[in-house]
Specification:
The complex is a heterodimer of chains A (290) and B (364). Chain A has 290 residues and is mainly alpha-helical. Chain A has helices at residues 28-49, 59-72, 82-97, 100-111, 114-120, 127-154, 162-189, 194-209, 222-230, 232-244, 256-259, 261-287. Chain A is elongated, with a radius of gyration of 24 Å. Classes of the chains: A mainly alpha (290), B alpha/beta (364).
Chain lengths: 290, 364
């Protein structure tokens, strides 16, 4: 086999003392948190460089509110204020589409060399995904705030007490978190970042439109009524409407999720989180080792 | 096992450098790397030489914890690359073939981020970033987004990122590919400076002069296998004799030159048809003046005549040409006659196993 000539005759180093900078010895949890924040800051910095990245969570929801409130709204009868009816739907739809953000940025990172840099650094392995998660969650919360603000401007109000409103907000945060992990997982499945948009549109679009998000389920054909009633998006939207005390059109099909929307929505979010997050973390580990 | 390999160079203190033993990596049915044995003492430079697909990047990926070896073991900075991967990452710097910088961050922000992820404090990370920007001549570009930097600048930024933690072992995967000659020379200077200060350097290259200039030891890979290792001088010695080059003025003289020069040719001359350079290992005892006189006597106009040690190119072609690389450049010359230029093996061809009996052994 190998014909080695002679042992290395390289000059022996006099002293191999590379100065190693003092590294703070910290607990693993503190390191994970600090690494996560570094990665989160990186994403925020990206937004500073490309502000249009924020359009989908800022201008787009506002556009939808105005479009539905003033263009379609007059033609849709929900047995109450359509603008109040609308906000729950728009909130859920925006968060649903919010998975495009994490999916695209993860897919972009994976398609570029920068991911190798992160893999070689002594940073905690999960910190990269957690950092993404934090930054995306902040973006989604911003979108929710902007939506509610726009809602207030066009005449939406919450008619319930603090506990219900807080529960609604908590549910929205949980849904956002779940959709970010789903998006993160999607970002690791696709081969190119361009594929994300197509997949998101062909899944989220029918999911939100074949639901009670914008029109009462009763206005749909029989088959779609069943689909819409079982659609998790409908439960989410119904839960938000119930918790805000906004008008909800009468239930079309007496299925359990529509009778107990808050419980159903909480269950859906919990299930999505319980499946999506571990899947994403596992997939990431698989992607970064060979 | 490792210890016996390492201790002699390390005074019994913690072992450093890079040690690999029977390292192999299989992707599907294909062994990208097989039976790699390495011993790189701390503070020295190893050059891993090979064509694309020879297994160089696979070796780097295993040694930098990015890939798990299918077989064999390796230690970097005294730590096992599989069992102690996390601690290995604290001690190494890596600059991959493609710059691994974040295009949407400024040059400085990239370095600060890497510093923070190496767990430097915010102020340390900033100071280190500024130092490295200055050292790699990037201070003027500090605020520019990495994606707007030129290719050469991005490579330098990538190198800066790999130096943030003052690594004990620095891995560079084809560090000068795509760089202009000046940037290359600057980079070589910088790397020599690092090695002088005790850094162990592990670099892969397709450039023979780069390995020749920087490496203390060279390992030649071909199709995942080690085909030779040794110091640059040792590898050159493997090819044996000195060579002489005769640059002819016109193509018309080729046949005559081949005849006249035959007494001096030890074996298998080559001819570069474009530059009209006739090249061959010289017969022992040949004096250059005799060559010149013979040419002059035959009335052949030679532009240049020189005698030289075999270059790493010669070594490389001898070693890997003999493995029967099917890449077309391998005109294994059957022409033994030297009386016409047409029969002379065209340059770029492997010299074939007959050039040196040793490579056979290397490939068995």
């Amino acid at each position: 086999m190998t014909a080695t000539l002679t042992p290395t005759t390289a000059p022996a180093p006099e002293v191999a003392t590379t100065p190693v900078p003092a590294r703070a010895t910290r607990s693993a949890a503190a390191a994970l948190l600090s690494d996560t924040l570094v990665f989160a800051r990186r994403n925020v910095e990206h937004i500073r460089q490309i502000p249009e990245k924020l359009l989908d969570v800022t201008v787009q929801p506002v556009m939808f509110v105005l479009l539905f409130a003033y263009v379609f709204g007059g033609a849709i009868d929900v047995g109450g204020s359509y603008r109040e009816y609308l906000i729950g739907g728009i909130l859920v739809q925006s968060i649903g589409f919010g998975m495009v953000g994490p999916a695209t940025s993860i897919a972009t990172d994976l398609s570029e060399g920068v991911i190798d840099r992160f893999r070689i650094l002594p940073a905690h392995r999960s910190a990269y995904l957690l950092g993404h998660f934090l930054a995306e969650l902040a973006g989604m919360l911003l979108a929710v705030a902007i939506l509610l603000g726009t809602g207030l401007l066009v005449g939406w109000r919450a008619h319930t007490g603090f506990v219900d409103v807080a529960t609604a907000l908590l549910l929205l945060v949980a849904f956002a978190a779940a959709m970010i992990w789903v998006g993160t997982y999607l970002g690791m499945l696709v081969r190119t970042p361009d594929a994300v948009m197509g997949i998101a549109f062909t899944s989220i679009f029918p999911l939100t439109f074949i639901s009670n998000a914008f029109v009462p389920i009763r206005s749909m054909p029989e088959v779609l009524q069943w689909v819409a009633s079982w659609n998790p998006m409908s439960a989410m939207v119904a839960a938000i409407r119930e918790l805000f005390g906004n008008p909800a059109a009468p239930v079309a099909k007496d299925v359990w999720p529509m009778q107990h929307p808050v419980a159903a929505a909480a269950l859906y979010c919990a299930a999505l989180l319980a499946i999506g997050m571990p899947l994403a973390l596992r997939r990431f580990r698989a992607r970064i080792t060979d | 096992m490792y210890d016996s390999l390492v201790r002699p160079t390390n005074n019994g203190s913690e072992t450093g450098g890079v040690v690999a033993e029977g390292l192999g990596k299989r992707y599907g049915d294909l062994w990208a790397l097989r039976d790699l044995d390495l011993h790189v003492p701390p503070g020295t430079v190893l050059g891993l030489l090979g064509h694309n697909g020879a297994g160089k990047t696979t070796a780097i990926r295993i040694l930098t914890t990015l890939a798990r070896p299918t077989e064999g073991r390796a230690r970097v900075a005294g730590l096992d690359v599989v069992a102690d991967a996390a601690r290995v990452r604290e001690r190494i710097g890596v600059a991959a073939q493609q710059a691994t910088v974040d295009g949407l961050l400024s040059a400085r922000a990239n370095l600060e981020m890497v510093g923070r992820l190496h767990h430097l404090s915010r102020s340390e990370a900033r100071r280190t970033a500024d130092e490295l920007l200055a050292r790699l001549d990037l201070t003027d570009a500090a605020g520019r987004l990495a994606k707007h930097l030129s290719g050469g600048m991005r490579r330098r930024l990538d190198l800066a990122a790999s130096l943030v933690a003052a690594p004990e072992v620095l891995f560079l995967d084809e560090p000068t590919t795509g760089l202009d000659p000046r940037s290359r020379a600057d980079l070589w200077d910088l790397l020599r400076g690092l090695v002088d200060r005790g850094t162990t350097l592990f670099l892969t290259t397709q450039y023979l002069d780069e390995a020749d200039r920087l490496a203390d030891e060279i390992v030649v890979l071909d199709h995942g296998r080690t085909v030779a290792k040794g110091t640059p001088a040792e590898l050159k010695a493997r090819i044996g004799d000195d060579r002489f080059d005769v640059a002819l003025a016109t193509a018309d003289d080729l046949a005559a030159a081949a005849t006249v020069l035959r007494p001096f040719v030890a074996h298998e001359p080559t001819l570069d048809a474009e530059s009209l350079v006739f090249s061959a290992p010289v017969v022992d005892g040949t004096r250059l003046i005799d060559v010149v006189r013979a040419l002059d006597g035959a009335g052949i106009d030679a532009v240049d005549v020189n005698r030289r040690q075999p270059s790493l190119d010669d070594v490389f072609l001898t070693l890997t040409g003999a493995t029967g690389r099917a890449d077309g450049t391998d005109a294994t010359g059957t022409g033994t006659g030297t009386d016409t230029g047409a029969d002379v093996t065209v340059a770029g061809a492997g010299h074939g196993p007959t050039a040196d009996p040793e490579p056979q052994e290397a490939l068995a």
